[in-house]
Design a protein that fits this description.
Layout (H helix, E strand, L loop, with lengths): L2 H23 L20 E3 L2 E2 L15 E16 L2 E8 L7 E5 L3 E8 L10 E2 L18 E8 L4 E6 L5 H6 L3 E7 L9 E10 L9 E3 L3 H6 L4 E4 L12 E4 L3 E10 L4 E6 L3 E5 L6 E5 L1 E4 L3 E8 L4 E7 L2 H7 L2 E7 L22 H4 L15 H20 L17 H5 L1 H10 L1 E7 L2 E7 L6 H13 L10 H10 L2
Parallel strand pairs: 1-3, 3-6, 4-12, 5-10, 11-15, 14-22
Antiparallel strand pairs: 2-5, 3-4, 6-8, 7-9, 9-10, 11-13, 15-20, 16-19, 16-21, 17-18, 17-20, 21-22, 23-24
Helix pairs in contact: 6-9, 8-10, 9-10
The structure holds copper (II) ion (CU).
Length: about 500
């Protein structure tokens, strides 16, 4: 035995005695810090994981043994509502932002089925921070629309972990809502509480300013500058207010599983009028007590719990407070029950904390409403093609058609595009894989088939041809229809 091993054994011993001291001195949220070798835990039986959309979480693991746990997760790209009158195309794990909550225990062997819905436009994958392995699973989970991949992992560390999509451009996939939480409970489970909820913060970047109505597309420039238009809980303004507020009764204990998907901002998570009795710092096993505000990094988490002593509406905020009052990061916990005048005797109002910025509420009803009429003139068709491009093509080919070196070929001044209209239409209809040479550079990657109508394809191609130094060719719906006939 050399000096190094002895030293590290000594350190380990101090660590163990320190942590067992902690367990006896404070029996709080999940402090089972004895380092059992989770890789050696045997699984007993199989079950399908219960998945829930926010703000709900699956049932606690309780005393159950480690198991082989099947997770069935479907990726769905869909239009949703960011705020009153503001629509956004979200990319989701399981149909919600944040994605479905996954609840496991140490030693579980997870068999992960990741399905990419056939109507989706893009390939995706998943990086789970709870996975010990290359890319947190990202390397094995890349999945094209209409496909399902399966990979397995054993959960070794307890804690609350973020998962997210890690497909290029990664920042954009996260910014569109591709994140969620996976909880790994210790052996025997976390201490029981009366109510548990799932809250996850995210920052969003839209072409229009905060409150501007209509379908808003993602703004890469603002994302790079880290200047979000919306900072919200659970994917949208108002996800946890009014009728959507989370609830508890006086005397109950509440635990919040809080995550931060980012992509950019760090959250100063705070519940106005409550003090967290226990906080699992950064979602790990170290528990802090009597905390007012807990810092949650992008791609990180925190577990907080507290007892509801008095009734009222408790406002959940990111204490970087302009985000709360002007960008949307405001939720509510409504606690019902009898007043306790010795603990709190004040005149309470609901209004004090309503968004004072009020940009969203104050917008005149129909200003900037989306036009629904079919585009007919060339200018209208190009405009329509641009919005299709910004929803479907630019994730890969980039906002100004410049592509990504070695991965996505350029559409700007592309010799291939300008010489082959039929191939361009065919790629959109059928997808394309295998080697292709564009402007003298080889690409060998995958373009997924795009589910678009003849009108949409003709408009998007007409837009592309009219932009970035291309040939200004006009593509008609008839040209698309003719190619569509040849490919089935
Ligand atoms: Cu993705």
């Amino acid at each position: 035995m050399n000096k190094r091993t002895i030293l590290s054994m000594l350190k380990m011993a101090t660590f163990i005695s320190l942590s067992s001291a902690m367990i006896t001195s404070c029996n709080s949220a999940g402090n089972s810090n004895q380092k059992i070798d989770a890789s050696k835990i045997k699984v007993e039986g199989t079950m399908e994981a219960e998945l829930t959309a926010p703000p709900l979480v699956p049932k606690p693991v309780g005393k159950r043994a480690a198991m082989k746990l099947t997770v069935n997760m479907e990726i769905i790209e869909k239009e949703g509502v960011m705020a009153d009158g503001v629509k956004y195309i979200y990319w989701t794990f399981g149909g919600s932002v944040p994605g479905s909550f996954i609840r496991t225990r140490v030693g579980d062997e997870v068999e992960f089925h990741l399905k990419n819905h056939p109507n989706n436009k893009l390939p995706h994958n998943i990086d789970l921070h709870a996975v010990t392995g290359p890319g947190g699973g990202a390397a094995s989970s890349f999945v094209a629309p209409g496909h399902e991949v399966v990979f397995s992992f054993k959960v070794l560390n307890q804690g609350l972990f973020v998962y997210h999509c890690a497909t290029a451009p990664v920042g954009m996939h996260i910014a569109n809502g591709m994140y969620g939480l996976i909880l790994v409970e210790p052996e025997g489970g976390l201490p029981l509480v009366d109510k548990e909820y799932y809250v996850m913060q995210g920052d969003f970047y839209t072409k229009g300013a905060n409150g501007e109505k209509g379908l808003q597309s993602f703004d890469m420039g603002k994302a790079i500058k880290e200047e979000p238009d919306y900072v919200v809980f659970n994917g949208k303004v108002g996800s946890l207010t009014g009728d959507n507020a989370i609830t508890a009764k006086v005397g109950e204990t509440v635990r919040l599983f809080v995550g931060n998907g980012g992509p950019n901002l760090v959250s100063s998570f705070h519940v106005i009028g409550e003090i967290f009795d226990n906080v699992n710092i950064e979602g790990g096993s170290l528990v802090n007590h009597d905390v007012q505000t807990t810092l949650i990094p992008a791609g990180g988490s925190s577990i907080v719990d507290f007892k509801c002593e008095v009734p009222g509406t408790f406002i959940i905020v990111d204490h970087s407070i302009f985000r709360t009052f002007n960008k949307g990061s405001l939720g509510m916990l409504k606690v019902s029950g009898d007043e306790n005048k010795t603990l709190y005797s004040g005149k309470q109002t609901d209004e004090v904390y309503h968004p004072e910025g009020g940009t969203i509420q104050n917008m005149p009803a129909d200003e900037n409403a989306v036009k629904l009429s079919k585009p007919t003139t060339l200018a209208e068709r190009i405009e329509d093609g641009k919005s299709i491009y910004n929803r479907t093509c630019f994730a890969c080919h980039q906002p100004t058609g410049e592509g990504l070196p070695n991965t996505f070929p350029p559409l700007a001044k592309s010799d291939f595009l300008n010489a082959n209209t039929t191939s361009a239409i065919e790629f959109i209809l059928k997808g394309k894989s295998g080697e292709i040479v564009v402007n003298g550079k080889k690409y060998n990657s995958v373009m997924t088939a795009q589910v678009l109508t003849d009108d949409e394809i003709s408009n998007v191609l007409t837009f592309v041809y009219s932009s970035w130094g291309n040939s200004k060719k006009v593509v008609s719906p008839e040209m698309v229809a003719a190619v569509r006939k040849t490919i089935k």
